[in-house]
Design a protein that fits this description.
- This protein is an alpha+beta fold.
- It has 9 helices and 21 strands.
- The longest helix has 16 residues, at about 5-20.
- This is MucB/RseB-like sigma(E) regulatory protein.
Length: about 375
Amino acid sequence: MNRRGRWTVVLLVVAVLVSLPSVVGAWPVGASDRRDAAALLARVRAAADHPYSGYAESTGSLALPTGGQLSDVASLLGGRTQQRVWWRGPTDWRADTLSPTGELSSRTSAGGTQVFDFEDTDVARSAPDVPGAVRLPRATDTLPPALAARLLSGATAGQVLSLPARRVAGRVADGLRLTPDEPLSSIAHVDVWADRESGVPLTVEVSSRTSATPALSTTFLDFSPGTPDEQVVAFTPPPGARVFTRRRLDLARAVGRDGDASSLPATLLGLPRATAVDGLPGVAQYGRGVTRLAVGELPGEVAGSLRAQLRAAAGVTAVPEGLEVAVGPVGLLVTDPAVTGRSWLLAGTLTPAGLAQAAAALPRAAS
């Protein structure tokens, strides 16, 4: 797949995922210790700013394409990542990440983020994230508290049920299961176990309808709910380090800044259209909770190149609406303009049938 096509596919998947291992020392505590799921959901949300520290491991089974800057994303969502984190608050924390691509230390403050690469002795500084902006996933997005916050943000009391309590990292953790209401959702359920004392999520598992193995799981192997010492979180570039400012990746250019999603409907398959993606006028997002769909129209040249590459790729299925492929619970469909009137790219946590129905409901080119 050429670079432009690869970026287009991954960025629509990221627009879905970012908007979205076996537990060592975990064993059931007993059915009598179950807590009300709605109350636990409220406790988890209330603990969003609770300080903590610990060691976590995440495991992903999403086989994303690799190459260039996509290698880190592919390793993160398709392999194992180990992290030590010290969290004092949303704008005062540090995380050290050990992954197949190297070791990094990330220090976040109100002024932005500094990332120190131990191997290259480089320090990359970046401004604080812009609310609503699309970006590539980072390792810290897979920490149990961060992942749970994203996945449970749209959950309602009627969507969650209690799970038996477990011991995670030597602590009692109460569990809940979020099951999407939408029958066409490709996500079977999201399981979260939260520390009984603090309410901080300790384990998160995301399961699809097509596999018994979680598409993404993350858990603490060591955890403390106390406030980390300020000196542990502090960071000063070491002598001789190369310090530079990292420019924000131009995702709009990668997807197509001249796109226009204004013709797309306000609802699709009953899913409401979300707030426009910052800087991506050609992409529309639909859905609620963990059921998400991103839609964008492809320029003719990009669409033709992408179809040619998909036809030669493994795991791609030809359907009446176009070419379809699944990356774990995330499905992707490139439509055939002879059938749908335009070349649409759809990516989301929908079943193959759901993607096909969504494509059929999109507007055709004006005659």
